[in-house]
Every structure is written in C-alpha cells, then in structure tokens.
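Translate sequence into structure tokens.
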Amino acid sequence: MNPQASALNEVLEAQNPAVYSLLSKRGKAIFFPKKGLVMQGKDASGKRINASIGMATEDDGSPLRLAAIESLVNMPPEKVFPYAPSYGLLPLRQKWQSIIRSKNPSLGDTELTMPVVTNALTHGLSMAGYMFLDEGDTVILPDYYWGNYNLVFKNAYLADFDTYPMYKEGGFNLEGLKEKLMAPGTKKVVLLNFPNNPTGYTPTDAEMKGIRDVILEAAEAGKNIAVLIDDAYFGLVFEEGVATESIFASLADLHQNVLAVKVDGATKEDYVWGFRVGFITFSWKGMTAEAGQTLVDKVAGAVRGNISNDSILSQNLLLTAYDNPGYADDKKGKYALMKSRYDLVKKTIASHPEYSEYFDAIPYNSGYFMCVELKKGNAEDVRQKLLADYDTGIIALGSLIRVAYSSLPAAYIEELFNNIYSACKDLD
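Result follows.
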C-alpha cells in the first residue's frame, strides 16, 4: 500500500475504528497524491519559467484558447479554460458547505468535511461506492429505487441489494429498515433517497425522527453504518408536516458508529442538469477536522483517478450565480411553478374517482415525480398503448407508472391522467 494511503488510514483508524472499518479495499488504498507530479507542479506555480503544467498557454501566460469558444462565454479565460483542482474550486466548496448549513439549520455547528466536487450526483454516488463497497457487500434500500443504482453499485462494484417494502400503512416502513439493519453482520451500508425517485415521497417529520432512532438503535447494538444520502431532489417539498431538512442533519452527529455521507448537487436544486456539478460531504459524531480530512483526501484521490476533475466553467458559473442578488427570488419562482404542477396533479386525481377502477396513486409529496400503481395488467403494456394511440410517454416500472410532472405544462396534466385511464380501459 502506498505510504500516503497508509498515513491517512492510521489517522482515521486511531480516531474512529468503526468508520475506518467501513472503508472498502479501494477506500483504504486510495489517497490524493501530494507528492510526485502534483507536488512538483505546485512547487513550480508562480515561477517566471514554468514548464511543469500539462496545459497550453498563450505567450502572456493566459490559457491557450480558440476565439470561437471564448466568444461564447462572458467570463474571464482563467474561469473557463483551465483545469479545476480534483477537490473542486475552494470558494465553491466553501459556498456549498454554507448552503448545506443554511438549508439544514439543525446542524448548528456540527463538524462537517469540506464538500468535494464530483461530476454531479451519479458520479458522487459512484465515488461513495468506491469508498465503501467491496464485491459481495450489501446495500440496504427500499424496493422503490432509482434504476441507475443497479449500474452504479451492482455492476461497477459487484455489490448486492437487500430491499425492504418502502411503505407500510401509507407511510415510510420504519420496521422494514430496522429489520435489515439488525440482521446479522456488523458492516451496514444504507442508501436513503428523499424525495425518492421514482415515488416522489419524503418522510414526515415524525418518520424522519423514526429513521434516526432506528439507525441509532442499530449503532448502539454494535453495527457500523455508512448511510449514503442521495439528496438529488432536496428542497422540493410541497406539503406541510413533511421533513424540509435532509436526513443528513439528523445523522451527522448521531453516533460514532454512524458515518453520514451526503451526496447532493446543483443538478435539480438549481435546474442545471447539464452542468454536472455535485458534492460529497461527510460527518460523524466526534469527527475532528483531521479525521474528516482523511476522507476528503481519499475521495479527491478517487476523483483524480476517475475523471481527474470537474468542469471549471460549470463551477464558476454556479459560484457567480450564488452571488447574484436575484438568485433567491428567481429560485422561489421556479419552486412555485413546480408546486403548482404538483397541486394540479393532486387535484386531478382527487376529482376523478373513476381512475381508481384501474390505478391508485401511491404516497407522494415532493420532488419531480409521482407514481400510480395498476390494479390489473402491467405498466409496459399501458406504456406501449399510450405511445401508439395517445401520443403520450410515461415510464413503466413493473406495476407502476411514473409520471414526471416536473416536465408537464399545466395544460397537459389532466389530459395525461385521462390518457392513462383510457389506455387501461382499452386494454381491459
């Protein structure tokens, strides 16, 4: 093992053996190379003659660039063309940490690592898998989950899934989660995604407390738990009594055996799907800045070995936007648009009792999506009928139909559900 990885491991193991034990073989072996090329390039930085950097420059030292591209972006060349650090731009990382705290006030002054920038959330989840999953390790998650988790965790890291029914008596299934956590085995990797994709469900305040209590009980029973928190749709909550803070806030300082791993980003929160800027942040009870930095260095090393670094242009565009005085009001306006579509979905389903002959909505209250569960037939047949005869597209998931109302103008919402009903009736 590289001595730089060993040095990080020694710090982490000395300060929290439980968190250290959660690392995969890759996680233990990875490090950010602060010697070799990186160190030599840093040493050369600022020198009058610098032939160390693997980037081309103009004669004045600015980034070499094509006018056809430069003319498209109204930003200084140094914010557009160079490499970003593998950790991400420090001002953006600092800003995002402050955003996490402002959106999750119950965090208080809990110690958090500085977020590491990833290529949006999919890459952030992949880096979490790199850090914590070996072949044959198990990920605990609800039976309704984003299909891409299969590629991210099963195909890439050969992990297994252990699912539990997401709902019980119309709410989040705390007993199902508890059963999986308390099953034999010390290492537990749990994946929580709220608002959930595909269901559009976020637990209530009481259910969030229940999740916290279940995880605490398992930790006190000797389980070492890494909780991977996919906060892709964070902030889009549309009902009273539904948790508005991330479960990360409840877990960050919960127990020394609980490692909270927040994977989030601007993709959905700021409606910039193509920017590909995400973040990964860690915390556990009693975490010191030194111990937290070991995970930061390891993730940055994994990023460097995987994609090298994320887009400096995307990072600087976001950083500039966050300082724009109109940002907050603009975002409130987009939230209002999303909520209006959600409200219209609720109204449409409530005003059409005939739908219940063929399908019912499963619980939803947030995010981009909702699902209806068919009472007969299968969703793929309905999907094909909608495509062929109703000029309508949905996502079919077994007996579920997922509706992305996030992309539906209000004028189409009732028509969509009428079309689903008609297609079901046609196939009956």
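Note: The chain has a mean pLDDT of 96.
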